[in-house]
Design a protein that fits this description.
single chain; mainly alpha; two-stranded antiparallel ribbon; 8 strands; 62% helix; globular
């Protein structure tokens, strides 16, 4: 669950193209708006389905653990490379059309990966990662736009959809391989839901291309297009839309008064409740017209983001928690199989690991303001993975309990990581820039997990002790970074 990415690292640079939200939620029919959650369901299965059949892929193609580890890391490389570029595609064709293209690329990637030969495995995996990367960027933005008055609920729903899709793929992949004649059919099957959702999403693209505006006239809907900003746009009045997930644990948001062309425009203080009533984020109540941007460029910090230590603590936390999740998504079934469990049972362990994230993600916000900062939440979310790593290493025959404990940690850690990104940005535009840094570099860091895990397994003759020692060490490092990234935001710059 991730926000829009940008590469902007300082306030003095020209503002980058920004997604705009000209169309209020009320202009998108409820059924069409809800399609964004179906898109979210497709953002993990094509990756999560690989783990349960990874050993079969290696046997069929005569690939060792190092090569399989590289295969597991490739989607993360695609995330890191493609995520910052999505905004440029969106600037040309709009968010809705970009999501449609991403779904089609994802579906094509699933087919090529399965039936394109050894080279197709790599090209298809790259395409799968690219399609999902675009969805990672745009799903939170579109959900925020369409559900501005119920943002926390929308965040919870699309996060749950992402986790549910991942868990379902992990549970069913091995059985699909048995029924469809091998791993190729099992992986290709995930092109089907992507194509179905792409067909439904086409209805939304058509609807938003032309429609009836709020004034009763036919108008071109440009809700999904972006506007080019110049340096002066950084001083213009922007939207008062809240930062993604920024309301968690916060009592109020005080947008800064801005002026344009000598006209003073005061922005009142809005009290932001802790739960779902986000009525002040409705564009119709903020004094902005339908062309209000999703985020504003307010000059705040003179120190560029890349020179702030907190930027790198948050980035490292994002990367380490992603490394733990994707390492186990790829290798947990193999570890369980080595402990004596059959493929179907190993898939159940992976399902437990992934699905428990829904529950822990809903519970961890209660700890987000203990002692006034996020250190408690970040540490509580990180420790379970250390316990799970030690458990898989020392008592692998108890894989299911370790999957449960690790699953609670990974779901909570993701919510903490996204919340830290939101809270550590001084303005909405800065939050977007921080998200771009944390996700791009964070995913590069995360790719070390599945890659090194496989390499160590091959070097040690298929034994899992050394890889699990590395996994546990990375989890312990996440605990240390949690104490730094979770410090009070007022003391981080």
């Amino acid at each position: 669950m991730n926000g829009e990415n940008e590469t902007t690292t300082g306030r003095t640079e020209p503002a980058a193209p920004t997604l705009t939200a000209p169309t209020p939620a009320a202009h998108t029919p409820a059924l069409l708006a809800a399609l964004i959650f179906l898109v979210a369901l497709n953002l993990r299965p094509a990756i999560a389905a690989v783990g349960p059949v990874l050993v079969r892929i290696g046997s069929d193609l005569d690939w060792g653990e190092s090569t399989l580890g590289m295969l597991g890391a490739m989607p993360l490389w695609a995330f890191a490379a493609v995520s910052p570029l999505v905004r440029f595609v969106t600037a040309r064709i709009g968010a809705n059309r970009t999501i449609l293209a991403a779904l089609l690329v994802l579906a094509i990637g699933c087919v090529v990966r399965s039936f394109g030969g050894p080279a197709g495995v790599w090209l298809g995996t790259l395409a799968v990662g690219a399609g999902i990367a675009a969805g990672n960027v745009l799903v939170p933005v579109v959900a925020k736009r369409d559900y501005a008055k119920h943002l926390p609920l929308a965040v919870g729903v699309y996060s749950a959809c992402i986790t549910a899709g991942s868990a379902t793929a992990g549970l069913t992949s091995a059985s699909l391989a048995d029924r469809l004649g091998g791993w190729r059919g099992a992986l290709a099957a995930w092109a089907v839901p992507a194509v179905i959702v792409a067909g439904l999403w086409t209805l939304r693209v058509i609807h938003n291309s032309t429609g009836i505006g709020s004034d009763g006239h036919t108008e071109e809907r440009t809700a999904d297009h972006t506007s080019e900003r110049t340096d002066s746009s950084a001083e213009r009045t922007g939207s008062t839309a809240e930062r993604t997930m920024g309301t968690i644990g916060e009592q109020s948001v005080r947008p800064r008064p801005q002026t344009e062309a000598g006209t003073h425009q005061a922005v009142p203080r809005h009290n932001v409740p802790r739960h779902n009533d986000l009525q002040h984020t409705d564009p119709q109540h903020t004094g902005h017209n339908a062309d209000a941007t999703i985020h504003a460029n307010h000059p705040s910090e003179t120190t560029p983001l890349w020179r702030r230590p907190m930027t790198w603590w948050v980035t490292m936390f994002m990367g380490l928690q992603s490394a733990a999740f994707y390492t186990m998504c790829n290798w947990l079934p193999a570890v369980a199989s080595a402990a004596g469990f059959d493929d179907a049972t190993a898939g159940v362990h992976l399902f437990v690991f992934q699905s428990l994230g829904i529950l822990s993600g809903l519970l961890i916000p209660a700890l987000m303001r203990v002692h006034g900062d996020q250190r408690c939440a970040a540490l509580v979310a990180s420790l379970p993975m250390v316990v799970a790593g030690m458990g898989w290493m020392l008592l692998p025959n108890l894989s299911l309990p370790w999957s449960l404990i690790g699953g609670m940690g990974q779901g909570a850690a993701l919510v903490v990581a996204l919340t830290l990104i939101s809270l550590r940005g001084s303005t909405p535009a800065e939050t977007v820039a921080l998200s771009g840094i944390a996700q791009s570099i964070g995913y590069l860091l995360a790719s070390v997990g599945p890659l090194a895990f496989g390499a160590l397994a091959e070097l040690t003759g298929g034994r899992w002790t050394a890889p699990l020692i590395l996994f546990t060490a990375l989890a312990a490092a996440q605990c240390g970074i949690a104490l730094l990234a979770g410090r009070d935001a007022s003391n981080t710059h």
